[in-house]
TrEMBL record:
Organism name: Flavobacterium franklandianum
Coiled coil: none
This protein's name: Transcriptional regulator
Domain GyrI-like small molecule binding, residue spans: 222-335
Domain of life: Bacteria
């Protein structure tokens, strides 16, 4: 009996000593990992900058299919936020600041640990070097875990390494898998829409568009305005030399409405027009390839473009429908000036037998919205 008491006392003293040892250990940690990603810097930055993509490359989410993730309304750039609850625990991630194609600064909490997180992006001959760094403080329980599992650097380092590998594979397939099909001449029907117009650099169109689409959609919901159709963008000008465009981000609506003068959002009507349609299946970064194919088609078929605006893009399947870039679908329309239809001259009969000309068959142009 006395031996059991001694053993119990020894165990208790060991636990106390271990607790004191753990408590006196430094609670701070720094973890850093780097990797070359086989995609262009702007694509890698934009993908990592949208927290909605987090679950498709961060190892915590990739390895936990039942993880429950909640997102803020805006998940791109400064202010973007997500929280999660999964088999490995719960946490939060918030974007504090970003520098275009250069860096992302975030704060993270995970199972009682907190950290300042940074990702930097460096161009390496068409590829991208990502340096991912976290500096923070550990909870008491996590300090216990680190003693038996190789330390914070090893634990968080594994997460970083797996995540960067997932990011590389995800981008390599999802960004670089695409298809372009020129569908030919179609007729677009009249549509009513709400829009906000601005001038933007090509590289910032996606980011600015996401913000405006969200703003107009919220405006429609708050004012009981019925949305009818998919969001689209009208490129009024498209300056490939200076990489600038004047663009209207549009949401189609069921009925025309009156907007108070001075509002950022305007109401307008898209008149019916003929256009050459091209369908891009894949990430938006391949839009320039789709545009080039469209211009080649116009030239080959001697079709003249209507100068009313440059072109129009309809986002029939996008990130709001499916978070798989290789399956996104964008329809591009270049307005054209219809070719004049010449009626054949009526020949004067040279005999008493009447000569009846055959009716000219006119090729039907499909009509779609």
């Amino acid at each position: 009996m006395r031996i059991i008491k001694y053993l119990f006392l020894l165990l208790l003293l060991s636990l106390v000593a271990l607790s004191i040892f753990i408590a006196t250990q430094k609670g701070v940690f720094t973890v850093e990992r780097s990797m070359i990603i086989n995609s262009q810097r702007s694509l890698v930055f934009n993908y990592a900058n949208d927290l909605k993509n987090w679950k498709d490359w961060n190892s915590l989410a990739v390895e936990d299919s039942l993880m429950n993730i909640t997102y803020s309304n805006n998940t791109i750039g400064k202010g973007g936020f997500c929280s999660w609850d999964g088999k490995e625990g719960s946490g939060e991630l918030k974007t504090i600041n970003t520098k275009e194609n250069d860096s992302i600064l975030q704060t993270m909490s995970f199972n009682g640990n907190s950290a300042d997180v940074s990702m930097s992006f460096k161009d390496t001959l068409g590829k991208t070097k990502i340096t991912w760094k976290a500096k923070g403080r550990m909870s008491f329980l996590f300090k216990v875990k680190t003693i038996f599992d190789g330390g914070a650097n090893k634990i968080f380092g594994r997460i970083f390494e797996k995540s960067l590998n997932h990011l590389d594979k995800r981008l390599d397939y999802e960004i670089n898998t695409y298809n372009v099909t020129v569908n030919g001449v179609v007729k677009k029907l009249e549509a009513f829409y709400l829009a906000q117009t601005f001038t933007s650099e090509f590289s910032k169109v996606a980011k600015n568009s996401a913000i405006v689409f969200s703003k107009i959609t919220t405006f429609c919901n708050n004012n009981d305005i019925t949305i009818k159709g998919k969001p689209f963008a009208i490129y009024h000008t498209y300056d490939t030399t200076n990489k600038l465009t004047k663009i209207s981000i549009c949401i189609p609506i069921k009925n025309p409405i009156f907007i108070t003068e001075g509002s950022e959002i305007s109401s307008d009507t898209l008149r019916s027009f003929e256009a050459v349609k091209t369908t891009l299946t894949g990430h938006y970064s391949h839009t320039s390839k789709a545009i080039n194919k469209t211009l080649e088609y116009l030239k080959t078929n001697n079709l003249r473009t209507d100068p009313t605006f440059s072109h129009l893009e309809i986002y029939t399947i996008g990130k709001n429908e499916i978070n798989t870039p290789s399956k996104w679908k964008t329809e591009i329309y270049y307005p054209t000036i219809p070719k004049p239809v010449y009626k054949p001259a009526v020949a004067i009969p040279t005999t008493t037998e009447e000569m009846v000309p055959k009716a000219q068959e006119e090729k039907e142009i499909p009509s779609e919205f």
